[in-house]
Amino acid sequence: MKTKRFILIILLVSSFTISTNVAASNNNKENKIPNFPEANRLNNRYFSYFITDLYREEIMEAFQSYYKSKGLKPTGFNPSSEDPDYGMVSIYFGNDFSEKFTYMLKVSLSPTTDEKVLGTDTLYFAVEPSRQLMKDLPKDYPPIKLVKYEHKEP
């Protein structure tokens, strides 16, 4: 859990860095520094994969809870769009839950069973990463809380 919290904090900090031009960057071949993509689309896609992997357990619990009444058992999920630039994950700072949680996490995915796609689901979580490592938290202060669940048929 410490690793999960550390990685999340590093990712959040690094996702808000500002690019600057440095004179040494002209020597990319000599320094073996890779050429980073101009647009952050690729980075955002990998960030989305990272976040969905980081919160996979909570995402799957939400899917299974929602589909239980329909007699379905989701076994996984896919991005909701074939577009490679599609943003599966969005993070919002400053929210109605800001007294207890640092940010809101919006995740849009297509839950699947072994046979079919169940639809397009959007989950909204309130997240407090500082509680990821804490044990025996009061019920009012979980590290992550499902706030809203939206479902659209395929």
At a glance:
With 154 residues, the protein is α+β, with helices and mostly antiparallel strands.
Helix/strand order, N-terminal first: HHHHEEEEE
- Rg value: 18 Å
The tally of strands reads 5
Strand content: 15-25%
Overall 3D geometry? Answer: globular
Can you walk through the features of this model?
Helix content is 29%, strand content 23%. It has 4 helices and 5 strands, in the order ααααβββββ. Residues 17-28 have low confidence and may be disordered. It is globular. It has 154 residues and is α+β, with helices and mostly antiparallel strands. Strands 1, 2, 3, 4 and 5 form a 5-stranded antiparallel β-sheet that branches.
How do the strands and helices of this protein lay out in sequence?
Layout: H1 2-15, H2 28-31, H3 41-54, H4 56-68, E1 76-79, E2 89-93, E3 103-112, E4 120-127, E5 144-152
Give the key terms.
154 residues, alpha+beta, 5-stranded antiparallel beta sheet, 5 strands
